[in-house]
Amino acid sequence: MRVDEASLREDFDALAAIGATPAGGVDRPSFGDAHLAARRWFLERAKAAGLETRVDAAGNHSAVLPANGPTLLLGSHLDSVPDGGRYDGALGVVAALHVLLALQGHDLPLTLEAIDFTDEEGTLVGLLGSEALTGVLSDEVLRNPRGGRDALLAGLERAGLHEEQLRDARRDPTTLAGYVELHIEQGPGLEHAGTQIGIVTGIVGARSFTLDFRGDARHAGTTPMNARRDAGLAAAVFAAAANALVVRDFPGCVATVGDMRFHPGAFNIVPGSVRVSLEFRSLERAQLDALETVLLAEAKAAAKQHALGVDVTPVGHWEPTALDAGVRDAIETAAEGLGLTALELPSGAGHDAQALAGITPSGMIFVPSVGGISHNPSEHTEWEDCVNGANTLLHTALELCRVYAVRGT
Amino acid sequence: MRVDEASLREDFDALAAIGATPAGGVDRPSFGDAHLAARRWFLERAKAAGLETRVDAAGNHSAVLPANGPTLLLGSHLDSVPDGGRYDGALGVVAALHVLLALQGHDLPLTLEAIDFTDEEGTLVGLLGSEALTGVLSDEVLRNPRGGRDALLAGLERAGLHEEQLRDARRDPTTLAGYVELHIEQGPGLEHAGTQIGIVTGIVGARSFTLDFRGDARHAGTTPMNARRDAGLAAAVFAAAANALVVRDFPGCVATVGDMRFHPGAFNIVPGSVRVSLEFRSLERAQLDALETVLLAEAKAAAKQHALGVDVTPVGHWEPTALDAGVRDAIETAAEGLGLTALELPSGAGHDAQALAGITPSGMIFVPSVGGISHNPSEHTEWEDCVNGANTLLHTALELCRVYAVRGT
Q: CB of B43 within 8 A of CB of B63?
């Protein structure tokens, strides 16, 4: 059994046209016109095909193929980062829809639900829909949303949603059989390995910090090298050392200095202070702890070496999420059955599966990203890989139905 | 012979009150209200003391003690950087005025002129008055002034000056006997050495460049360390290496990375490009050449090491200026006669003496800056050092008169 490849392509292209950018990507930030139009398209497409539809209190949009058992969720998201690519999120939603279409009329032990989660990318909050559905959406995150309170309230209003009702989207875990998400890898791992399907072992945790190196702003002409407390130098030494240290001692982890802000920031003034944005990720909590210890010690050492101070401020964190072994087995079986090469790999990016994994057996299927590029109009996945991913999603759903039936209802 | 210390203090304080800031500094950018008020004060003070005054076509303000010989200029500037200190420039002007006052009624072989140069600090152009007086003010600098054309034209109008007449301020070098400027050091050299008077050997040259490191902006979670072209890392490695290299191989020179601009500049994106502001200074042209060679090679090596490119753009430069040996001898003699400790040192900052040195024997006297701080409200020089500086200026003028008289008119 296969998804209808021609129809999948037609639907993928129809979706990519909504909010299309001249550079070939899409611009569909949460609750903007293009995003709302994409969601309407999804519901109408499902209805037209004879599927049931639902929209919950958090705005999650679903197409449903009902059966007499609990629900296996298949999904992703239709929002994009500003000036993003056409594959990120959209591929998973349209593939989930086509899994349901392929299985219409079959007698299944599980209800199948193709779901488009609200605001995965974080224009407003990040994982808004999946956190509401899994019951972990916090007051704190709504009070201080990533995109600001005003944007959140305006967005909810545009979508016809109500802040105080968002949590009504919560689902009873006993009604769920699991969650499977097809997504582009957004990294170069599969491409480098020449492998068709990625079986995601888990989603890395991340921690981020602001490091404020504080020296003395001085005249760059009259202050000798040995009389300086150069915050820029300490920040640079830290960034170089942090990179070398992570490459050497933490294989598989990443650490990034994504920004440095120099103050006052002029050719002829020794930098008085520099604000460094540091983030690091690992699949293992113990490694996150170790990274935090050694990187912050390195920052303090760089500051001390240059006779200045450094203030460390935690900015954000999320814990690593292991994905379900049973779902991983089902994905492996599906890929094998389709004659596709597969390998296990972690996800370096966050996904709705992080939230879902907290309440139901969850898994993710990756397909290769050309050049590892994502969040960019030039994001691309070969069409053959998109189809492979959709068929793997289909057979994973079938395998999970089989396992459910064997274990007994 | 000494300057009148009490009167010097009174005048210094009167000047410091014009444009005074709450933090104890002054805010007198060129042709702002406070700057124009300070210049009026200077002319009125000179007139009240019975000195002649003049204002030239570039707005340079002078008090003159006429004699039968060429003119020895003594001066500095009354403009300040925004939110600057009370000593930078003002000390040299008020001390020059008091040298003339101390010598009123004496029979001198040289005309003495206490001069306040227009726009030394560069709110508009930088060294505007001294370059006009020495005939090196270029069309290019007026077309693209540091502060913008609009600010220049508005400033000239406020001061009653005319762009097309600025160059009429040019002085015939044969009418000049030399130039001596008293200034605060703006660096920690004299304080560290515990020395009272600095005899400036020359004014360093400087060159500045923009270095654009160009890599790939990539997802910081999904892009492994070994698959990155991290422009921030290359910039950091360059900044650290450049510093180490200059400290090791170029004693007495300075090199500064005063700014880095990361793009896109987010926690979760590997920096795609970073713009680095690099400046270096030396008293020797050959060393500037060598610094340029090794620092730009280092930038290219850092880029290559991280698999990215770097574009190098020259931004500005000025050549080193040697100060006159005869004037340096006169300063040394003056300090010795006053029982003051003195040492020779270069000036890391630019001064009007750069321009003057092109047409007449020029020298500078430095007095200690507490903590090396300048261009800041906390800029401070002990009053005793200010008086020492003024008396050294007085005796340098007397020594130059003596030498002139001995050599014969």
A: yes
